[in-house]
Design goal:
Number of helices: 23
Low-confidence stretches: none
Bound molecules: flavin-adenine dinucleotide
Oligomer: single chain
Length: 638
């Protein structure tokens, strides 16, 4: 068996994911209720707001950040694949590496809303700059130490990162991507601490960081709980080698590493949150950490709106501005309305996170999924609107004497958003797990192949009682009453649609459950569509409530929200149809045959890749045999 095929079974992988999952729901969740068929509008309407102090601090920070961001040469970062030292220094001086940290630890103390606005602004200079800040703050040292660190750890590390030291988060390995059950980096207990051994792949900021959060496995023993554990590690500890800096189709400026650990000593005091808590820490950190990437998607989407507007009005073909040809106007309309909705979703999720009254884990996950997918579509449509110039680099346009606009770069930079911090497929599974949780909880033993007959019978009775109470609530609701949600004015019909469709969605999940029972968790295409419908409904809600709230200052927002909802309804209709009318089963059979080589003849007629190296690098333990390529960014003075 090849190294990629050995390792934990699917069942074990699920167990690891399940153990890391937070199963408690102590606060209300708009997202969870949505999948149960209940539109809990009162959780998001009235639109939440930051306190006057948060707003004052946030606006003051943005006012300081803006001139610096304007001074960043984003084109040079793209050209040189390098963020210059003075950008690090300038950001450090502004406090941008401690935006979300409390002022008591030297941070700026921004709310989630203003942190995300700052990321949107910084990401608009160059997406690699936004990614540097986001990887450092959302998954690197600041957030997990703030949430799970002891007071001693906070005192030790937070002032350092707030002052400008950069950090990284190291989970991925050559053999570990979406499946942490395969994690191979070990943490062997020794006197006073642990010895780390292993190789970590694709750590953003890994080549420039002075502090690392490293996930490693402590072996289980009689005295130890063991398991995947998070450590805060000094990046210059003996035994750490940065073996290479990786390069990608986009985000060319990021400092992304392969990092080897060979007998790296980490003291007991640097275990974060306790042994075996590593994945829970990673997942909990991501609950709010997932707001960052969408904030950067918004930056790109806004840029696309701007370029589409200017170009499509100016460029004339066939006697009209290209934006006045219907095939183009549908794209411009989509780009503009979707950007409006994306910003509404990001702001809403941030505000919900700030007032801390709601559990936002589903909303944040829906947002990450939806924003990364939609921003990609927006940028792709912009490339089309720009025609040949959409495919041409900005430098090439400038060299011809034209305005240099990097549409192709925006598209490339956005592509990874659908893969890292939870790929679209993994987000689908994660959200679907929560969406069907109520069903699994009541029907657990019915569908568990290992449950006894007696347990199954008991579960049938329990499920019967649950569904007898729940199903009737899905039949009627405010969405069927033509006068309801009148306070939304022109948008009332859209909100009624959301309410009706929320119930329809829950009924569909129930039908799916009845049809596939225990096998439902394997119906990934079905579950993916269910989640996508939920994401559209959340987006519609955010857009409508935002537009209603800002009606006095931005009456035109109502037009955009209405337009977005009309477009979303078309997508939702197609998704519902595809729930039951699709090629999923045929695709599954075909993929099996394709993997077995049956259709390899289709590949004839081209030159096939000559590289016959391993698909996945096997990790050889031991000291590094490569030079250390770490980049030492000078620390800001003062
Ligand atoms: C530019 C960049 C920056 C990164 N930064 C970091 C970082 O800072 N720290 C860090 O630890 N990691 C980082 N990563 C790693 C990133 O998080 C992973 O690439 C991501 O988790 C996906 O893992 P993978 O690439 O190994 O894909 P794989 O897990 O090999 O998956 C391959 C494909 O299969 C799908 N798939 C996998 N499992 C399932 C399943 N159960 N059901 C359905 N589909 C499935 C995936 O969605 C994907 O489409 C970075 C990666 C890149 C490229």
């Amino acid at each position: 068996m090849s190294p990629t095929q050995s390792g934990p079974t699917e069942r074990e992988a699920r167990k690891v994911a399940e153990a890391a999952r937070e199963s408690e729901w102590t606060k209300p969740s708009f997202g969870k209720e949505l999948f149960l068929g209940r539109l809990r509008l009162e959780l998001v309407d009235p639109w939440p707001s930051n306190s006057p102090d948060q707003i004052a601090a946030g606006e003051a920070f943005l006012a300081r950040l803006r001139p610096f961001v304007e001074s960043i040469d984003g084109a040079a970062i793209e050209r040189d694949a390098f963020i210059p030292d003075d950008v690090f220094a300038g950001l450090a001086e502004l406090g941008a590496f401690g935006m979300k940290l409390p002022t008591s630890y030297g941070g700026v103390g921004l709310s989630h809303l203003y942190y995300c606005k700052a990321l949107t602004l910084a990401g608009s200079a160059n997406a690699s700059v936004g990614t540097l800040l986001s990887a450092h703050q959302s998954i690197g040292v600041p957030q997990p130490v703030k949430m799970f660190g002891t007071e001693a750890q906070k005192q030790k590390y937070l002032p350092r990162v707030a002052a400008g030291e950069v950090s990284a988060f190291l989970l991925t390995e050559p053999d570990v991507g979406s499946d942490p059950a395969r994690l191979g980096t070990s943490a062997t207990p020794v006197e006073g601490g642990y010895l780390l051994n292993g190789v970590k792949l694709w750590a953003t900021n890994g080549t420039v960081s002075t502090l690392l959060v490293v996930m490693a496995r402590v072996p289980k023993s009689e005295e130890r709980r063991g398991g995947i554990t998070a450590f805060v590690v000094e990046a210059d500890s003996p035994g750490i080698t940065v073996e290479s800096r990786n390069a990608f189709m986009g985000l060319r400026g990021i400092e992304n590493s392969v990092t080897r650990f060979h007998d790296v000593f980490v003291p007991d005091a640097d275990v974060l949150g306790g042994e075996g808590r590593g994945l829970k820490i990673a997942l909990t950190t991501l609950n709010t950490g997932r707001l960052s990437l969408p904030a950067m998607c918004v930056a790109s989407a806004k840029w696309c709106v701007h370029v589409a507007r200017g170009w499509a009005a100016e460029r004339v073909q066939w006697g009209r501005p290209v934006g006045r040809h219907e095939a183009m106007s549908t794209k411009i309309s989509f780009i503009t309305s979707t950007t409006y909705a994306l910003e509404a979703m990001v702001d809403l999720c941030c505000l919900l996170a700030d007032d801390d009254a709601n559990d936002i884990r589903i909303e944040a996950a829906l947002l990450k999924l939806y924003a990364s997918e939609m921003a990609w579509k927006i940028a792709d449509e912009l490339v089309q609107v720009r025609g040949g110039r959409g495919f041409e680099t900005a430098d090439s346009q400038r060299a011809r004497g034209e305005r240099g606009l990097e549409a192709e770069q925006v598209l490339r930079d956005l592509r990874i958003m659908r893969i890292f911090e939870g790929s679209t497929e993994i987000m689908h599974l994660l959200i679907a797990r929560e969406a069907v949780d109520a069903h699994l909880a009541v029907a657990g033993d019915i569908i568990d192949p290992e449950a006894s007959r007696d347990d199954k019978l008991k579960a049938v009775a329990k499920a019967g009682a649950f569904y007898a109470g729940w199903l009737p609530t899905l039949v009627a609701g405010k969405g069927a009453v033509p006068t309801s949600f009148a306070d939304f004015g022109r948008l009332a019909a859209q909100v009624r649609f959301v309410e009706r469709t929320t119930r329809k969605l829950a009924r569909s999940i129930f039908y799916g459950m009845g049809r596939w029972q225990g096998a439902m968790e394997r119906k990934q295409a079905f579950l993916g569509r269910v989640v996508d419908i939920g994401a559209e409904l959340f987006a519609m809600t955010a857009a409508c409530v935002r537009a209603k709230t800002e009606q006095a200052t931005h009456p035109e927002g109502v037009e955009l929200a209405d337009l977005f909802c009309q477009q979303a309804r078309v997508r939702i209709g197609a998704l519902f149809t595809a729930l039951w009318d699709n090629t999923d089963d045929a695709d599954d059979v075909a993929a099996k045959q394709a993997l077995a080589g049956r259709y390899a003849f289709v590949e004839a007629g081209i030159v096939l890749p000559s590289d016959q190296g391993p698909w996945v690098t096997p990790v050889e333990p031991g000291p590094s045999t490569k030079p250390d390529v770490r980049r030492h960014v000078p620390r800001a003075s003062g």
